[in-house]
Amino acid sequence: MQSWLFxxxxxxxxxxxxxxxxSSEGFTRLAxxxxxxxxxxxxxxFxxxxxxxxxxxVAYAVWAGLGIVLISLIGWLVFQQKLDAPAVIGMTLILxxxxxxxxxxxxxxx
Length: 110
Fold this sequence. Notes:
The chain has helices spanning 2-23, 30-50, 56-77, 85-104. It is mostly helical and 110 residues long.
């Protein structure tokens, strides 16, 4: 269970770093740039801890799927970026895939 907490922390750190990437304006603003670097270091540290137990394919599927959805929501809420119907449908399918892996796959049970 601890490995799933590590994965959740990795996802949160990656989402924070990616959100700051938009605000860094091509690494020209110091504070957001520092947040990007620290966020990605923290994200990869916790991802490395998570994949000691969680199979790397499962961990990466969860990481990527939830990261895409969370970043898209932040883009929509914070940066006023539009999400059209195909984007919402696609993210719903991504979340469905993550749920299928976690609820039904014996691979994620390791």
